[in-house]
Amino acid sequence: VSVGMKKNQEAFFFFSINNAATFKSQLALNISKIITSATQLLSVSTQPITAVNVAFSKLGLDALGVTDDLGDVLFSAGQKANAGAIGDNLNNWEPAFLNQSIHGVFLVASDSVDNVHTQISQIRAILGNSISEVYRLGAAARPGDQQGHEHFGFLDGISQPALQNFNTPLPGQVVVPPGIIIVGADGDAITTRPSWATGGSFLAFRQLKQLVPEFNAFLAANPLPVPGLTPAQGSALLGARMIGRWPSGAPVDLSPLADDPALGADPTRNNNFTYMHDGFNFTSDQTHCPFAAHTRKSNPRADLPATAIVNKHIIRSGIPYGPEVTGSEATSGITTQDRGLAFVAYQSDISNGFFFLQANWFDNPNFIVGKSDPTPGWDPILGQILSTQTGPRFTSGLDPTDPNRDLTLPDFIISEGGEYFFSPPISALVAGMEV
Question: Which domain holds residue 123?
């Protein structure tokens, strides 16, 4: 959990449990032996060619006869129950998530599709008729120089928290108590969890469809009118200010007008900023980075006291799915093939982690608070309109020549649903979930 399975290919194999007794027996005897530990992932020398993790929904734990309260109300309710509170439209959900028949998910990651399929076949052979496949999503790192970039073209996964006494932090990387991510570890504020759950983590899974041709067409149609920039450069600047980083990963806070690939590629510099600058009006100046930029909404850094942010961190382990944009899609500006991000986030408390970020920061046009502009607008990438809000989506501060201008935004991401899971410690798997 604290390291993440960084592989080029991954599949999410969602299943239901038909025979709990057989499943638990095989989990203890065989499946637990192929689950990859964080310790194995820490070192290249011990990294398996294929990494495997398993996590259970509340319905899955119920099916296994595990009735303990894990201390997370959102997990217990399931993602569908509070989908409206994060702006999801259930009409857009993948039927598998809508039907609430998912008991668990195997995450299988490797360097080749064949390895992934072979591993899933092995899991299915071990478990036999004790499970049924409900849904499967294949995902893969993008090809060539786009490896590590999500489908909009931006380097992803740069800003992750370091766990105290576990990871060595890079310059600018926030350090959080391990209990913010790992259940029962130091810093986990919920003290009523069952002891067997210690060492596990809650997994928020989301299938986020990305409308890449529409995103690119929007940038092309709305270049920022910054003196000295060509229209193409103005369009690139708009995209960077919406994200908060350039495609290379270079933060706009450190490189406000043009991409800096050397900065983006330097882990000692690409995360080492706070949004504060000498001689700078921190409450009104958006020349470097808009208040509503995605990276700023998701990690406000110096905009809020550190104590207000520390328990809001998540560890992300997402991966793109779907094909590259086709020539006809690029020409028409219309998506015809399904692609997006298989979003995976680990935390010890979903209501402080993924759910809080989406509902209170991304979907809140008044956040970041305390700025001269009382309504910075929605997160231009992930913000969704709630049932309690009136649209359309807008973001201000994107145009450095007129920071008060609100830019109306179509949706570039459509949530196709997801589920909340608990990823148990290996000790519970070895026990066959007889906890």
Answer: 1-435
Q: Is 138 exposed, middle or buried (0-12, 13-18, 19+ CB in 10 A)?
A: middle
- Answering whether pTM is above 0.85, one says yes
190, 325 in Cβ contact below 8 A?
Answer: no
> In the structure encoding, which two tokens stand for residue 98, read together?
């809508």
Per-residue pLDDT tens digits for 261-316: 999 999 999 999 999 999 999 999 999 999 999 999 999 999 999 999 999 999 99
The residue type of 317 is: S
The pLDDT tens digits for 76-90 are: 999 999 999 999 999
Query: How many other CB atoms sit within 10 Å of the CB of residue 323?
Result: 13
- Per the structure, how many domains does the chain have? 1
Backbone angles phi, psi at 270, to 5 degrees: -75, -5
Tens digit of pLDDT for each residue in 159-187?
Answer: 999 999 988 999 999 999 999 999 999 99
Tokens for 124, please give them.
């299915």
Cα dist from 351 to 76, 311, 389, 419, whole Å? 12, 10, 21, 14
Which are the contacts of 401, defined by CB distance < 8 A and separation ≥ 6?
A: 224, 225, 226, 227
Q: What's the token pair of residue 202?
A: 């809650």
Give catalytic residues, as residue numbers.
156
Q: Measuring CA to CA, which residue among 104, 101, 102 is closest to residue 31?
A: 104
Q: Take residue 301 and report the two structure tokens written for it.
A: 């850094």
